[in-house]
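Box 3.1 A note on notation
Throughout this textbook, protein chains are presented in two layers. The first layer is the amino acid sequence; the second is a token string describing backbone geometry. Keep the layers aligned when reading.
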Amino acid sequence: MGLMTKIRKRHIALMEKTCDVLGNLTQSLTQEQAATLRDRDNGWTILEIMCHLRDFEGIFYERARMIIEQEYPMLPGYDQEALAADREYNKQNLAQVFAELKIARQRLAEFFTTLPDPDWERAGMHPEEGHFTMTDAVMQISRHDITHIEQITRILAEAKVKT
């Protein structure tokens, strides 16, 4: 097994652990805590972060499908603040959001797990990253996950909430 294949498999394994970590972090939160515990003064609540993670699963999947189905597509950009406002993230149900995130994550992990080796080098043009391969895509998900896991952990620590 080549180095890149090992790297990809490790990132897929990380993807599969994300929901376990998020579940452990949020299992004892009430709906009210999830909707009010906020990242500093103007940051997102835990519920908004969970909605963002759920919605970006679909965005990551859409971009990956575009790369596979099109020849060097221009990948769409998204305004995450506008999505949060338009979809009223902070009014959603935490348990439902988490259930939807788990389903979306399973679909995305299966997509990457079944990707044939030659398709990993397919690429598109990412609005922020530039040239963007399927390997970049799977690595971006891990970076995105850990950024928001750290954010939730910090919010909980600052609020001194026991998980």
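The chain has one domain: 29-159. Helices lie at 3-26, 31-36, 46-69, 80-86, 94-113, 134-159.
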